[in-house]
Amino acid sequence: MAGFREKxxxxxxxxxxxxxxxIIFLLVSDKNKxxxxxxxxxxxxxxxxxxxxxVIGAICYFLGMQCGNxxxxxxxxxxxxxxxxxxxxxxxxTGIGRVRGRSQTTLKNxxxxxxxxxxxxxxxxxxxxxxxxxxxxxxxxxxxxxxxxSIAEQQRVVVKKQLNLQLxxxxxxxxxxxxxxWKRKIAQENLDRSAHEFNVYQRLHGSKIVTDLAFxxxxxxxxxxxxxxxxxxxxxxxxxxxxxDLYIKQTENEVSEAETKLKDLQAQLETLKAEKKYYKIxxxxxxxxxxxxxxxxGYYTAGTSAxxxxxxxxxxxxxxxxxxxxPYIREGMTASFISxxxxxxxxxxxxxxYKIESSRTIYGNESxxxxxxxxxxxxxxxxxxxxxxxxxxxxPAESPSATPANLAAPVPSASTTEGD
Length: 420
Known about the structure:
alpha+beta, Elongation Factor Tu (Ef-tu), domain 3, CATH 2.40.50.100, 4 domains, six-stranded antiparallel barrel, four-stranded antiparallel β-sheet, 14 strands, disordered N terminus
């Protein structure tokens, strides 16, 4: 065979490397060109062709190893790789984000205790006034029961005092003051009789007719009768000054004191009953609840975060970025949120940065700053309190090297924006 002819328009590129492409191009002729091998035998022609193919393949293989790809690719993939090299100039930074509602209220227990009932668990939708969970109020219930018994006893005291007041108004004076006028009259008669007998015995004693003992007895009786009349005269003076009214007023005061004590006990009972509301975690408005203390019979100290209520009609994402990424992030930038809820095929959430906090948080050896984002596009519903990654792609024109020095590091906003 004097030579061989190439088949029409068959271009094979063994590697994405310009020297390899050039060698192949120079070695492949078009369909009208014939390579003549002069002065060789047929067996020499075959050996030369095989050797040439092996040499070309070896050259292309080693050139391809320098580019890190040994597979046979098409021209289209070659140019695709060139374009991807240009795209790698964009910087991609990532932060860890958590989904929350546009506003959030954290509910804490006022008193330590055990959880007795749970009505709504995390991710449940609640209405304003719904009881999310309850703590055991055994001690409070005991105090209420004891106070109710005291109130019942005091009510009986009040009734007794009121009855005593009615009796006092009917007969206000004690027994020694009752019918004092008639008692005074009787005492006066006894005094007159004793005085007469004393005078008679005095004369008889002077005549030695009666003994000294009999005389002394009459004298003593006279003095006692005289003292009794004087005492009754004094009582009559006191009675005339309004003693009956004083007794009535004293009884009225006793009734008033008993009623006041009863009211105090009832007020204490109302206060204790009002304390029962602090053993319940109640939703302050409509929203989505995230419960933290939802273990039945679990003990929680006072001030523990029991639940959080989110207004989720508009969602936010609070994300943390490393401090060194601060120069690349600005308010108003758009980013992507890669949620841990969904696989890669169901991503597509878009967010917009609306606030960069100036404070820093230290975790280990790294310093992080808080970036707040609004969810602008939510192809699939994001679960409140779920986590994911906020991905910010910084184009070359937006990098700090392409930005004036006074704009390279943005000043975090200090204004209060809806959703903080």
